[in-house]
Automatic annotation (TrEMBL):
This is Alpha/Beta hydrolase protein. Gene3D superfamilies: alpha/beta hydrolase (3.40.50.1820). Keywords: Hydrolase. It comes from Rhypophila decipiens. It comes from the Eukaryota. GO terms for molecular function: hydrolase activity.
Length: 335
């Protein structure tokens, strides 16, 4: 991967840091079924583009004798990693750009990259997104805004875009209808209050972040996990995009939630958080053409064994294999 700096023509005075790989021309290029495919990695809020590097290294090793896409790109969004802050953010509030602004910027970035490095119009390419956490709803919003452009999405433990991570997960002890006697065994009212406080502080959409990504309208933009479905590839007569949904390992996720900075006991995660996340992931499998049933616990959702929320960090080899499998499928399936 080669590190680059690029300035969007639509936002002067600020730069984005990107890392790219473009395979050298070969005699077999015309016979490459992935010659129109651009592989794009979308970060969550926490981990920057550099955390994809090991997965991409293993991907290129896996595909040393297989077809490669026309290009691979990772990038840090404005205000994230090595990129500059978004010059359009207002100076007098901790809230800045929202998801719709991000996908507009992403489209401009991909337009410039395809022209500068591939000498092609972006519209001549099919996009495959590899996304973690909030990158997954960004992929969905991009596909809806630019219909026909997305051929596949690998969702690595998607953020629950329609959740406020407080009332949507936990009962409210201060609600008149709350009944402490109906709490799961081993869970107290104090446990519920603590979990609500911690999740509100870490994950509520109103919580600000260094990126100044305003998440307060996410639930309005994507109120359902299972819809709207992704538009067909290349137009109304094309096939549905391939959607591969990967969830975290419930045991490892609960352990990391308890032992990390969140410090929420495993019993809380197991009783309230994981069931909601599992149901959300099942909804995501309905967005496009889904993978075959792979596990009894997840149905069409694959489970990344031994991985918490940041699957690309915990098991980059697993991520590389999933990308390679997705590319193999797309190479066999005409649009």
């Amino acid at each position: 991967m080669e590190d680059q700096t690029i300035s969007l023509t639509t936002k002067s005075g600020a730069s984005l840091k990107i890392s790219t790989f473009f395979p050298p021309p070969s005699k077999e290029e015309q016979n490459n079924p992935l010659k129109h495919t651009l592989l794009v990695f979308l970060n969550g809020l926490i981990l920057p583009r550099s955390l994809w590097a090991e997965s991409i290294y293993h991907l290129l090793s896996l595909r040393a004798s297989s077809h490669l896409p026309a290009g691979i790109i990772t990038y840090d969004r404005y205000g994230q990693g090595d990129s500059d802050p978004d010059p359009s953010d207002p100076p007098d509030t901790p809230y800045g750009h929202d998801a719709l602004t991000i996908i507009t910027d992403l489209h401009q970035l991909l337009t410039q990259v395809s022209h500068q490095f591939l000498k092609r119009r972006l519209e001549s390419l099919e996009l495959v997104f590899v996304a973690n956490s909030i990158g997954c709803p960004l992929a969905r919003l991009y596909a809806a805004r630019y219909p026909g452009s997305v051929a596949g999405v690998l969702c690595l433990d998607s953020m629950m875009a329609n959740s406020d991570f407080v009332d949507s997960l936990f009962p409210d002890p201060d609600d008149a209808a709350f009944e402490s006697g109906k709490l799961p065994p081993g869970i107290s009212v104090e446990d519920i209050r603590f979990a609500r406080e911690r999740f509100r502080a870490f994950f509520h959409p109103s919580v600000t972040n260094p990126e100044r990504f305003d998440r307060r309208n996410m639930a309005k933009l994507l109120p359902r996990a299972h819809g709207p479905v992704l538009p067909p590839v290349g137009g109304t007569q094309g096939r549905r995009p391939r959607v591969v949904v990967v969830g975290h390992d419930a045991v490892e996720f609960a352990r990391q939630s308890e032992e990390g900075s969140l410090a929420v006991p495993k019993r809380i995660t197991n009783a309230y958080v994981d069931p909601a996340w599992s149901e959300y992931n099942k909804g995501l499998t309905q967005l496009g053409e889904s993978q075959d049933r792979t596990s009894p616990e997840g149905g069409n959702v694959k489970i990344a064994k031994g991985c918490g929320h940041f699957i690309q960090k915990d098991d980059p080899v697993f991520v590389a294999r999933e990308i390679s499998t997705l590319l193999d499928y797309l190479s066999r399936t005409p649009s």
